[in-house]
Amino acid sequence: MTAPSSRRRDGAGPVDGDPVIVTDPKLPPVALTDDHHEKANRWTWPKILIWSAIALLGAVAWTMLAIVRGETVNAIWFVFAAVCTYLIGYRFYSKVIEKYITRPDDRRATPAEVKQDGKDYVPTDRRVLYGHHFAAIAGAGPLVGPVLAAQMGYLPGTIWIIVGVVLAGAVQDYTVLFFSMRRGGRTIGQMARQELGRIGGTAAIIASLLIMLIIVAILALVVVNALGESPWGVFSVAMTIPIAIFMGIYLRFLRPGKVTEVSIIGFVLLMAAIIGGGWVAGTDWGQAIFHLDRTTIAWGIIIYGFIAAVLPVWLLLAPRDYLSTFMKIGVIVMLAGAIILVRPEITVPAVSIFGENGMGPVFAGPLFPFLFVTIACGALSGFHALIASGTTPKLIEKERQTRFIGYGGMLMESFVAIMALVAAISIDQGIYFAMNAPTAATGGTVEGAVAFVNSLGLTGVNLTPEMLTGTAQAVGEESIVSRTGGAPTLALGLAHIMQQALGGQALMAFWYHFAIMFEALFILTAVDAGTRVARFMLQDSIGAWFPKFRDVSWRPGVWICTAIMVAGWGAILILGVTDPLGGINTFFPLFGIANQLLAAIALAVVMAIVAKRGKSYIKWLWIIGLPLAFTAVVTITASLYKIASPVPAIGYWANHFRYVEARDSGDTSLGAPEVLDAVIRNTAVQGTLSIIFVTLAIIVMIAAVVVTITAIRNGGGENTEEPPVASRRFAPAGFLPDATERELEKQWEPILADERKASTH
């Protein structure tokens, strides 16, 4: 039962205050009291000592990284700086957001409880949901971006990944998740249409759909570059598909609910796939079947993307989520432990020559703004806004859990990015540049890579052919030259660190392919989920004219919309695979810019929502406005560079007209005619998309600013939240319940057990 709410209004006008919700007195309490929360936040001497120690360790780590650094810096300081900053950000900054911005009320039922249907709306244990959410948001971005950005030195990237996530990325994920939940699980496009009006909302929906194409295409391109000409990798990753299907059938029919059991089985099968991959790659038939070129692998992923997106979610996507979450978090924690144990010395400078002149061989552009759009997902990701307003808000049990899942899930992704950065800078700099320079620069040969890298004039770098061939042989690959995309570099770095901790040089190849498998699980999960979310968005958009498309159970609509979205990102994927300048090297800046523009759109929508909530929220708008303003400046500046820069290595159109002139004059110094045609086509696509993306994002941001100013002047605005309903269940807010929460759980267990029985029946 609910009492009349002072915040629920039928029309525009100022709103403020929280609804008064009266729960069923016959049930145990559905929420902890305000006194309990105040008592939990009181300072005691043990708390003071613990948090002082964390702050001191973090300060020492940052001092060692940023100030007291010699020719080398120990990698353990990256781990300590990251973990201490995350703990402080979660304990203090996220609670400020919870107290003054979101203001959750566990007496209020979530959409999962109100609309529970056993399909899309299902109250889900917070720990399971954390795993699902993390698996969906953590794709290739935190693996690839930091590896590419390592060419600029370790310090700028480290600062942005750690500080940026606390002040920007986790703020976006948490607030989008919370406000989508309060609106019945609406997507960011639907919220934009409601909050910003027809023009701003339409621009946000179109931008979201187009940006999704770029995001999924680049995710797939990373897999292609990791598996190209690698029979071991192709076999191992291909085996994850039948393994995931087996897990889905096992959970659905053989042993329902046995998540831990099936995860152990899946992990054992994965290890067998990795070990078996080495044996298969050593056979003639294995080479014949699984030694595939990158174009063939790309077409395979396109076909897979369509099938995975139309299959029932329980058959492939869900079991892959279960398995990949254990793998992702387990591997990152294992790598962090190995770094502390091995303590590798980092010889990469804090800021490299390419960070100073902006003309690096991996990607070109000045440190500001290109460092930020290159790192992308590790600190701030618009893709997360699609997940946080997609499946996750429909599964949350209690409102207070959004901080743990939204803010905490993004902190874990940032930690993945830091580990990727450390892995990339732990290997020899010469090998790093040989692996990440495009084929156009190295010729794809050992000799060409050696000549190119040594011509860069880097201090302390003297690459030899033996270094490249020996490293390739050690990891069981034919070549590691121009393996762009970040995944092979991260795999080599992880193998380099792990073999020192466990197994020695003899296990170098195992650890390398273990990392490739780990990364492919990361990325294919995001390709699956991204295609499915894109299909939902397109169905909803077409449904405005043809309502039948909004019925997600209508198979023709599912197939048509999936085919359209797969064709879109598949076309961009093929362009990237066949790009003579290196698909990742030229397409990843567009991916990063598009992803950050989507984050700016999400933050703009959140800013408008917060302003509409009333006068008491206005003074806290800076928490949203600060990352929005920074992201807007970064992405618009980066877009202008890519659109208007006269430097061909930076500007898409400058490079486009350079190759057009070469083609028209018959100049073959830049490549054969087919190479010229490919570059001309790709740069035209990239330049056009850049113009469209930044224009749509600016429209959305202007609309959000207008709505925000209007709400501030009026002291609030229209409340578009779902009507409040009293909750009839309880669940703890964080990963570990406190004593009071455990006591309440015991009181609720028999009630919820009866509910589960009724639901099963």
TrEMBL record:
Query: This protein's superkingdom?
Result: Bacteria
Asked if the Swiss-Prot or TrEMBL record annotates the protein with the keyword rRNA-binding, the reply is no
Bias (Basic and acidic residues) occurs at: 739-761
Q: Which segments constitute the CstA N-terminal domain?
A: 74-638
Q: Name one GO cellular component term.
A: plasma membrane
The places in or outside the cell where this protein is found are: Cell membrane
Keyword terms: Cell membrane, Membrane, Transmembrane, Transmembrane helix, Transport
Q: Name one Pfam family in it.
A: CstA
Q: Is DNA-binding one of the keywords UniProt gives this record? A: no
InterPro entries to which the protein is assigned, alphabetical? CstA, CstA_N
Q: Where is this region: Disordered?
A: 736-761
Q: Where are the transmembrane segments?
A: 48-68, 74-93, 134-153, 159-179, 199-224, 230-250, 262-282, 297-318, 325-342, 362-383, 404-427, 510-531, 552-575, 587-611, 620-641, 691-712
Q: How does it sit in the membrane?
A: Multi-pass membrane protein
Which example biological process does GO assign this protein?
Answer: cellular response to starvation
The UniProt similarity line reads:
Belongs to the peptide transporter carbon starvation (CstA) (TC 2.A.114) family.
Protein name, UniProt field: Carbon starvation protein
Which species expresses this protein natively?
A: Microbacterium saperdae
